[in-house]
Amino acid sequence: MKSDSQKRGTYFIQTFGCQMNERDSETIAGMLERDGYERAEERDGSDVIVVNTCSVRENADNRFFGQLGVIKKIKEKNPSSIVAVCGCMMQQKRVTDIIKDKYSWVDIIFGTMNIDEFPALLRERRELGQHEYAVADSMEHITEGLPSKRKYKFKSFVNIMNGCNNFCTYCIVPYTRGREKSRPPETIVNEIKKLSMDGVKEVTLLGQNVNSYGKADGFGSDFADLLYRIEDIDGIERIRFMTSHPKDCSDDLIKAFGELPKLCPHIHLPVQSGSSRLLKKMNRKYTKEHYLDLLEKLRDVREDIAVTTDIIVGFPGETDDDFEETMDLVRKARFDSAFTFLYSKRDGTPAAGYENQIPDTIKHERFNRLVEELNEITAEKNAAYEGRVEKVLIEGPSARGGEGVCAGRTDTFKLVNFRCSESRAGELADVKITETGTFSLYGELI
Ligand code: SAH
Ligand code: SF4
Ligand code: F3S
Question: What is the DSSP string of 77-142?
């Protein structure tokens, strides 16, 4: 179509939250570029501004409405620009009500299950000049074949499922992403074959709980089966996935780590707490012992496997003893790294109404102790890399290293900085690790 190839203007997307949101933003960018929009370097002055929101972030509401305040000023300078807000916060009626009432200059609101409708909403907004809203609260099927604008040529996210059925009592995601829905294995395999023909070497399979892939949809094949099928795709050299729920981490999946050479030896396995009593209150459906058993089994099949995790500090009712259980688990598990979160209430989740909310001072005290312990372990784990030669997928210029320094990841997901021409981005190269720190490794190409 002629109109599709015309330049329509520029767009800027601001993304918060997890890889699911990053992946959705790639689809939004892909659709905009298909329709003739160009990516802008800066938000200021761009014709379409999209904010893709996350509800898990601490203080999500205040930060989001603060952002809108800034965007309002940008729109005042360029009144024909169109502002669209989307993502997990839009699935909360409380939030969309406030936007419609107090931020009525926002042009388009769309939900996590309406991403495919965005181009039509944008067209209608331009043609009819009216506000456009589309927020569904359930999804019949995942729309296939949408274009996507990837950040890297040589690696890609691949969504294998949407939603979550687990209802951990602190978490908003089941309410913002709807029920679990998996894509058929053939569709995923075909997408990865196409990606590989397009030069992609590394895929990261995405889902809130990839270990329950296919279970609710009755494909007759599970997540481990899917990994075996992806292993056979020519051109793909590395397979990663996230996130895994410990309750569904099957023996077949653990076995796959021992059998599939392309499956990277790294698992992100959020534990949340080391207290079995609190894990029960969180509705996580496993115990501290079960979790430590899983790690042992994983390390039995892949000695070098890196394990990363998420931990929440200050869940309602967390006693000193509960917290000491978490510290004990951390010492036993020896995580390669961890994301730590201060528990914060999410409207509409059961835990927000629990008694014994933990005072901020205690939360912070525990949090600091935990982070100190975790950092020490991370530094020790990283120090073991010194002198080793690691295969690193070169990503491009390092964010911190300065001129002529590139960054890349080992198969265990460690970030490495080394001198290298950025023209080598996308290559798998041997790097000798010469120095290590808590947050990254340094090395030399060999
Ligand atoms: N699906 C993933 C995690 C999604 S949310 C999983 O099940 O592991 C990412 C992380 O945010 C969670 O692992 C948890 O550690 C943290 N988180 C979620 N809700 C939170 C809350 N209300 N307060 C603090 N941290 C929270
Ligand atoms: Fe949230 Fe739990 Fe689902 Fe993860 S598994 S998204 S923490 S409800
Ligand atoms: Fe946030 Fe939504 Fe992901 S709430 S963590 S962006 S699924």
Answer: HSTT-EEEEEEGGGG-HHHHHHHHHH-TT--EEE-TT-GGGHHHHHHHHHHH---EEE--S--SSP
Which residue's CA is the closest to the ligand 3 atom numbered 7? 173
Question: Residue 218: its pLDDT value, please?
Answer: 79
- Distance from the alpha carbon of residue 311 to the mean position of ligand 1, in angstroms: 8
pLDDT at 2 over 50: no
Q: Tell me the residue range of the domain where 249 lies.
A: 150-264
333 close to ligand 3 (CB < 6 Angstrom): no
Q: Give the mutation target among 19, 54, 56 for probing the ligand 1 site: most ligand atoms within 8 A of CB.
A: 56
404 has a pLDDT exceeding 70: yes
- Token pair 């992403």 in the structure block, residue: 177
Quickly count: other Cβ atoms within 10 Å of residue 69's Cβ.
10
End-of-domain residue from the set 264, 279, 313: 264
Residue 143 CA to ligand 1 centre (angstroms): 26
d(CA 26, CA 1): 23
Does the Cβ of 171 fall within 6 Å of ligand 2? yes
| pLDDT tens digits, one per residue of 60-104 | 888 999 999 999 999 999 999 999 999 999 999 999 999 999 999
**Atom from ligand 1 closest to the CA of residue 344:** 23
Beta bridge partners of 408: 394, 416
Residue 116, in any domain of the structure: yes
* pLDDT score of 6: 54
Closest ligand 3 atom to residue 172 Cα is: 4
**Do 187 and 206 form a contact (C-beta atoms < 8 A)?**
no
Final residue before a domain boundary, out of 207, 241, 264: 264
What is the pLDDT, as a whole number, of residue 5? Answer: 42
Q: For tokens 């949090």, what's the residue?
A: 367
**Hey, which of 341, 357, 366 would you mutate to test ligand 1's pocket, going by the most ligand atoms within 8 Å of its Cβ?**
341
> Domain for residue 234, yes or no?
yes
The answer to whether 126 and 82 have CB atoms below 8 angstroms apart is yes
How far is it, in rounded angstroms, from Cα 24 to Cα 31?
Answer: 11
The 10s digit of each residue's pLDDT in 311-341 is 999 999 999 999 999 999 999 999 999 999 9
**Rounded distance from Cα 208 to ligand 3 centre (Å):** 9
